[in-house]
Protein: Sushi domain-containing protein
Amino acid sequence: MPALELGRQRDRAAILGLFVTTALVVAVDSACDAPPRFPSAELQERYKGTTIFAYKSIVQYVCRPGYTRDVNVGDSLTCGRGNKWYGPEEICIPKQCTYPGEPANGRLILPEKFSFGSAVNFTCNTGYRLVGNPQIWCVVKNGVVMWDRDIPICEAIPCSPPPEIANGQHNGAGKELFEYGASVTYTCNTVKRGEKPFSLVGDASIFCTTTDNVNGVWSKPAPKCKVVNCEQPSVENGQLLSRYRAEYVYGDTVVFDCNFRYTLNSSDASTCSENGLWDPPLPHCLLSSCGDPPDVHNAVKAKLAGNLFPVGTVITYECWEGHQFSPGEDTWHITCLPDFTWTETPHSCERIRCPDPAIRNGKPLGVPESQEHYEYGDILEVTCNDGYAFKGRSRNVMLQCTSDGSWNPAVPECFPEPRCPRPDTAHGKEVYQSKKDYTVGTQLRLECDTGYVLRGQDMTECQADATWAPPLPFCDKVCGPPPQISNGQHSGLGKEQFSYGTEVTYSCAEGLSLIGDATMYCTSDDGVNLAWSGRAPECRVVRCPRPMVERGRMTPQRFTFPYGAVVRFSCDEGFALHGDAESRCLADSTWHPPLPSCQPVQCFQPSRQEDLVIYRLKLWYNVNETLGYFCKRDGHQTSSSETTCSVNGTWVPPPTCKKRDTCEKILRNREAFQCGIPLAELKTLLEVQKLYLEIQKLEKELRTTAYG
Ligand SMILES: *[C@@H]1O[C@H](CO)[C@@H](O)[C@H](O)[C@H]1NC(C)=O
Ligand SMILES: *[C@@H]1O[C@H](CO)[C@@H](O)[C@H](O)[C@H]1NC(C)=O
Ligand SMILES: *[C@@H]1O[C@H](CO)[C@@H](O)[C@H](O)[C@H]1NC(C)=O
Ligand SMILES: *[C@@H]1O[C@H](CO)[C@@H](O)[C@H](O)[C@H]1NC(C)=O
Structure:
């Protein structure tokens, strides 16, 4: 695009006019009007005044003052097609000023360039102020580009001398200049002993500063030296925590704390201020808690945490178990009001009541007339009327009034009760009845009339099936005490009644002998009346004499011979016991049977036998005595034999003859009849023989009992 299009359009009116006037002279594209103007360059002198330039004509420019050629572009434009100028846009560029430098304590606000026509600004560091113009320009003077003036200077901002104060001084007294940043410190004069000291009121140090960056000012007014006293601090319902002082001066700080249940309503610390007042004003200790919640009878305070009760605190009272404030209400809340009093506290908790237990066919037991109602914990015994019982057959039930106002167990019902048969014990009577009606559970004790004894258990109870268990007893006749004996006693001592079959045993005092049966029985002779069997024994001193049997021995060997003692006797060899071998000591101190004696053994004449013929026949023979004999047989005799009487009284060998047979004996009897012996005499002889045989038999028996 042609670079000069814009310039051409700007001069359209002139060009149009020119075109109209030259149209007849030149071709349409063969001329340009005046070349464009540039801020940095101007047409050479020779083109001035020319208004029409031919096609392909060239114009040259020169730089305006303050500008110089741009070596990269040409310095001319050419009139080209379309009546336009072609060439560079800018032919010259501005010249540069030198770096201006910076002031001490200040600086250059850096521009993009230091070229002709531009300006640079200066500023001072904090605490310094600018003297001169803050801005300089790059200008052309006498054809040379240069800064239009000198750079400004920065000088320190000064303060006026610090103010003097009464009763004090500052430490800058010797100085004259107080520049930005300088500080001075004030102190108060000391006072003589006894005088009140000065307090430095305000900041001790001030420093030089500025608000407009031009003029210096002191940071604060100078402090004052004043005598400042604050009143003794005291706070009602509180105490001073900080150290006590006799006097409080400016700057002293006091700290307070409040008593229990009081709270500070503002800062806990106050400082003695310049005007002699506490700042902030001394706090107040204000009540901040209700008092202890009152105790309530039979109630506890639930969830009581801590002992501070700020406004709005809610305390809950809970009644003890089985108690309530009013029916159904066992809790009560109180609240701490803004005036630190409690809302209404409850009256005490009352015991919960149980209803009157109305029992059909039953009643409570042992309830005093004055009892109007039943309360929690009351224990009530209820019973059924006669002939009635509770289920389970119990007559009495204990009810307890529970914490919820009901009876435990629930009030039971009375049902008609079964009964046991009335006991009808002959010779007996009831001595105890737990109940009079023989209903289930009735306990009876039975006793027999005098002279009778109770058989079975004396206590019985009516069972649920209406029978007595254990079974009813019966009364049986008894014996009275057995007879007493002197010097002895019986085993039933102390008892009065002795039932049938009872055995008592008597015993004697030591050394005495019990004479008679030691035991007696309670027995009956007629099946109706009872009596003791037999007589009671006696206790007596019984001593039998020592039994003496000559040529004899006694067994067992013993030395005392009380009643009943039994001794046995035997004889030395060659002697035979005459009498009983055993004797017993009797109650009359005699031996019975009488003591035997030991007699020399003798042999009785040998038993008479048919056919046996003995020489020297005697009734008795001594031991060792020999006897000669022989046997007759059919008229002639056998040779004679001898037999000896032995120490045991028998004949050895026994003298016998061979016996004939029975038939022979009978025949011999016939012979006797044929002997011509009168019959009466024969009878007597036979009687004698029979007697003799009986004697022999008796003797044999006696011997058998004595030695057997
Ligand atoms: C210099 O100061 C003038 C006037 O205060 C301002 O207009 C100009 O922008 C400043 N130049 C620079 C480079 O700060
Ligand atoms: C503290 O309480 C006192 C007495 O009630 C009252 O005069 C004072 O203004 C209270 N101060 C504040 C900070 O509430
Ligand atoms: C009997 O004879 C025997 C022997 O000859 C003799 O030991 C004994 O002592 C005699 N007895 C009597 C009682 O003579
Ligand atoms: C008697 O003594 C003799 C001899 O000494 C003897 O054989 C006989 O058995 C005794 N008889 C009795 C009954 O002891």
